[in-house]
């Protein structure tokens, strides 16, 4: 969020609309909590809630299944095996565009194949927002749009539930037939929702 703040300062932008997908949504949530006067409206796409405890969000069975699903990727990260990481990410049942969007899948594979994964392999220290956003969502007082792929992961749907429940006046739209990247899977529909 500090990087985003400094970028906006450098560009001379005093107030803006923020749209963040996934981790970008988490950054946007933290940013609006720290700099509410700089945000006109917030759009969160498949965004987790910073600080949302997995043990609150998921049942024990769901949590164990998530750990089982993530173990191969964790092993590939530990071995710093980027081709294996790309393959495992592309095999994720909800993270990547579905098989019905072959061009989108190919685009994402090309992006990942050229990616350093530096933020995973050599993570920089992160400045956590204290207290975390999970318990502070009601402080968000700007118009907020929540977009979620109808077939995205359960964690993102539970996060959208929390955001919709806690952010005053938040509006939620599910884009049918999409996973975690509705902007790539159905770009025209996604753009119409955002622009409206």
Main features:
10 helices, alpha/beta, four-stranded parallel beta sheet, 49% helix, globular, 196 residues
Share of residues in helices: 40-55%
Outline type? globular
- Report the sheet-strand fraction: 5-15%
Sheet with the most strands, sense and barrel status: 4 strands, parallel
Distinct helical segment count: 10
Oligomer state equals single chain
Write the element-wise H/E pattern from the N-terminal end onward: HEHEHHHHHEHEHH
pLDDT averaged over residues: 95
Structural class based on helices, strands and sheet pairing: alpha/beta
- As a whole number of angstroms, the C-alpha radius of gyration is 17 Å
User: Which strand order do you get reading across the main beta sheet?
Assistant: 1-2-3-4
Number of strands: 4
Distance N to C terminus: 26 Å
Regions with pLDDT < 50 over 5+ consecutive residues?
A: none
């Amino acid at each position: 969020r500090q990087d985003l703040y400094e970028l906006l300062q450098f560009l001379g932008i005093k107030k803006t609309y923020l749209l963040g997908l996934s981790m970008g949504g988490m950054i946007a949530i933290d940013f609006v909590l720290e700099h509410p006067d700089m945000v006109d409206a917030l759009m969160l796409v498949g965004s987790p809630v910073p600080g949302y405890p997995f043990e609150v969000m998921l049942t024990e069975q769901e949590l164990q299944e998530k750990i089982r699903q993530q173990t191969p990727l964790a092993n590939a990260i530990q071995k710093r095996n980027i081709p294996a990481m790309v393959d495992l990410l592309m095999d994720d049942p909800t993270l990547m565009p579905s098989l019905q969007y072959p061009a989108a899948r190919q685009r994402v594979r090309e992006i990942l194949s050229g990616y350093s994964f530096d933020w995973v392999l050599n993570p920089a220290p992160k400045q956590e927002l204290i207290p975390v956003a999970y318990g502070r969502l009601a402080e968000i007082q700007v118009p907020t749009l929540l977009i979620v792929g109808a077939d995205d992961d359960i964690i993102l749907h539970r996060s959208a539930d929390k955001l919709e429940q806690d952010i005053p006046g938040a509006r939620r739209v599910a884009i049918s037939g999409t996973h975690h990247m509705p902007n790539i899977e159905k770009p025209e529909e996604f753009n119409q929702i955002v622009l409206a």
